[in-house]
Each structure stands twice: as C-alpha cells, then as structure tokens.
Amino acid sequence: MATVLLVQEEALTFIPNFQFTFFLIVTYSVVFGFKRTFFIVLIHVLLDNFFMGTFNLFAICPMLFSYTLMSFTICIFKIKKPIPLAFIAALFSIVYAACFIPFGLYILDVKLEQYILADIPYDLILICTNFLLVLWAYEPVKKVLENLVLDYRMEVDYDIDDDE
To answer: Would you say residue 163 has pLDDT above 80?
Structure first.
C-alpha cells in the first residue's frame, strides 16, 4: 500500500498539487484501521522524501503529522461515509498546507503574506481534488480493497488449514 502511494505520487508530480495520496490514506484508514495505516504512511513519507531528495525534518514532519492526524480523526470518529470523508480530506488538505508554512517561511525567507498569496492557487487545487476524489472514488476503491483483504485472509486461512 505504501508502494501504491509512492508510485502514484511520483507519476503525478508533473501536475502541481494533484495526487491521490489523501484519497488513498482516507480509504486505507477505513479499510485497514489506524495502526496499519500509520505504518503505511510512515513508510510512504520516508520513501517519498528519500526519493524526492527532501529527506529532512522540514518535509517529513508536516507530512507525517497531517497524514497521521487525518487517519486518526477518521478512525477515532469511525467515519465511513463518502461525504464526511470528502470534507475530512479537504480539511486536512488545509492542515497539510498550514503545516508547511513555518518551514516554507524559514527556507524561502519571505513574509507570511507573500507565502500565503503565492500558495493559495496550489492549496485550492489540493483541496478541490482531494474532496472530489474521495467523493467520487472512495466507495469503489474501498470495495476493491475490502475484497483483496477478504481474499488474502481466506487464502491465509486455507494455507494454515492445509498444513495440518
């Protein structure tokens, strides 16, 4: 699952702030629960930053914090319906962008107003795509993942019974 996150993000890097990361983490949170999703997110964030050449706390901390908090929120409130999940994805797109502000100000050495004004179009793209992706694609992808998990569990149970 971490590989899927990494590959889709790398494949879509040519489109600014368009990716399926939030959508997939939302879906993983519902299907796999918080603990498994946290490890998927951790592996993804570390690999993503390693491959993108941004392996530093200025990139890792905001990503890990916002993705983990989103997954935790979904799991703690047991949110499973597409519309509330779409709003969660949109909200955490804002949290994600906000988490980068202090690091961006430090690295770019610009004023807060300049940073926010320059970032607004990209944040709007991120918010809208995450909202729409969850709204439109969550149910079918969730069903596919649930079937894969069910098939895997049946296969594991069969293998265990076969050994006896």
So the answer is: no
3-class state of residue 15 by DSSP? coil
Q: What is the pLDDT of residue 154?
A: 79
CATH of the domain at 30: 1.10.1760
CB 64 within 8 A of CB 41: yes
Residues spanned by the domain of 72? 2-139
Paired tokens of 11: 């494949």
Residue 147 counted as domain residue: no
* Residue 104, in any domain of the structure: yes
Looking at the structure of the chain, the number of domains it has is 1
Count how many Cα atoms sit within 13 Å of the Cα of residue 79 in the half-sphere of its side chain: 21
Q: Give the range among 1-10, 52-61, 74-83, 84-93 with minimum mean pLDDT.
A: 52-61
Question: What's the average model confidence in pLDDT over 91-96?
Answer: 98
Which residues have CB under 8 Å from 85's CB, separation 6+? Answer: 26, 30, 74, 79, 134, 138
Q: Is residue 91 part of a domain?
A: yes
pTM score > 0.70 for this model?
Answer: yes
Q: Which amino acid is at 48?
A: D
Note whether residue 159 is domain-resident. no
Torsion of CA 155, 159, 161, 162, to 10 degrees: 130
Residues 45-71, mean pLDDT to the nearest whole number: 93
